[in-house]
């Protein structure tokens, strides 16, 4: 069914553009996502192990079906070097039905 609630946007940060590209390629080749947008440079500020940290990272914006989120997370964790990589799923509440049809057709 082509309903917005069947889809999600996933945010994942990576320590560099090369890893972001590897994560995107792995997810696309496995048909876990229909699209991966890479924003090559973001500056992240966060708490880690009781200390305020900052780092330069790349951000990947994945588009997928809700039912593939767990498998996508496993794929990211297999490749990602971080102990606790960012993996945030944002459910969709609206959008283009034609886009959702493409997204559905493009994922396994």
Give the assembly state of these chains: single chain
Give the helices and strands as they follow along the chain: EHEEHEH
How many alpha or pi helices? 3
Overall geometry comes to elongated
- Give the overall average pLDDT: 96
What's the level 1 CATH class?
A: Alpha Beta
Strand order of the largest sheet: 2-3-1-4
List segments where confidence is low: pLDDT < 50 over at least 5 consecutive residues: none
Strand content: 35-45%
- What percentage of residues falls in helices of 4 or more residues? 25-40%
Q: Using the coordinates shown, work out and report the CATH topology.
A: Alpha-Beta Plaits
- Major beta sheet summary: 4 strands, antiparallel
How many separate domains?
1
The first-to-last residue Cα distance is 15 Å
Our Rg estimate from Cα atoms comes to 14 Å
Give the gist of this structure.
This protein is of the alpha+beta class and 108 residues long.
Question: Helix and strand layout, with pairings?
Answer:
Blueprint: E1 7-14, H1 17-29, E2 35-48, E3 51-65, H2 69-79, E4 88-91, H3 97-106
Antiparallel strand pairs: 1-3, 1-4, 2-3
Helix pairs in contact: 1-2
Explain the overall architecture.
- This protein is an alpha+beta fold and 108 residues long.
- It contains three helices and four strands; from the N terminus they run E-H-E-E-H-E-H.
- It has helices at residues 17-29, 69-79, 97-106; strands at residues 7-14, 35-48, 51-65, 88-91.
- Strand 2 and strand 3 (51-65) form a beta hairpin.
- Helix 1 (17-29) crosses helix 2.
- The longest helix has 13 residues, at 17-29.
- The radius of gyration is 14 Å and the shape is elongated.
- It starts with 6 loop residues before the first strand and ends with a helix.
- The mean pLDDT is 96.
